[in-house]
Amino acid sequence: xxxLLGMSCKQPASIGFSFEGFRAxxxxxxxxxxxxGIAYYRDQQAQVILDESPAAxxxxxxAIQKNGLKSKTIIAHIRKATVGEVKLNNCxxxxxxxxxxxxxxxxxxxxxxxxxxxDDEFHPEGDTDSEQAFCYLxxxxxxxxxxxxxxxxxxxxxxxHFSETIAAFGTFNIILSNGEWLYSYCSxxxxxxxxxxxxxKVTLIDREISLDxxxxxxxxxxxxxxxxxPLTANEDWKVFQRGEARLFKDGELHLERLSxx
Length: 261
Prior knowledge:
Distance between the termini: 27 Å
Strand order of the largest sheet: 3-2-4-1-12-9-13
Low-confidence stretches: none
Number of domains: 1
Number of helices: 4
Order of helices and strands: EHEEHEEEHHEEEEEEEEE
Shape: globular
Number of strands: 15
Helix content: 10-25%
Mean pLDDT: 93
CATH superfamily: Aminohydrolase, N-terminal nucleophile (Ntn) domain
Structural class: alpha+beta
CATH architecture: 4-Layer Sandwich
Largest sheet: 7 strands, antiparallel
Strand content: 25-35%
């Protein structure tokens, strides 16, 4: 399997602290060592960085962590290969363009027997079930959401519907973004934490490192951090239940579909 990390912020914020704990799981504290990737938005343009080496050992990942990459929306992924070879074009996040916007996607889980028809516009470049699922989602959104990117409620409903459809083939935990909002769907493991004033001192689970968030954020800052498993030991991480979906925007929960709805 793999692990996911996402961040949605009111103002551009650094992913460095969270990424430090996250990348440790890429071969140091966990077994997800078959490549990694991180993607962010700059002026609504997606910037994607991929590496097929273990994240815990990668000099590139270390540089990103130390330089404190900043953005309002960031997605990262560490891979444990189950479907597809260990190579660069099988690393997440994947990127495609829909309705003039760059979309980013990463997935945790395996899908068995999922072989949808995909047209030439949305076609995988690698050989993972994850990229197939991403292409399928975008293809379905284009067909079923005539209002496009501005119809957020309809987008959320259709994303929930097609995420459920894909999840019937296996495990489907995802983070998806168009640069404005961050969508997440859970079939097994996903958690999120809200950070806002008053900020506190937090401690990583995978590294013996703490950070006083009040020294790095202003009164108006707020952010959401999503991860497969909680990254810190002393924060109120909220655990997704099976089939739950949430859409975050500007560091806040914007829409949600709870278990059983």
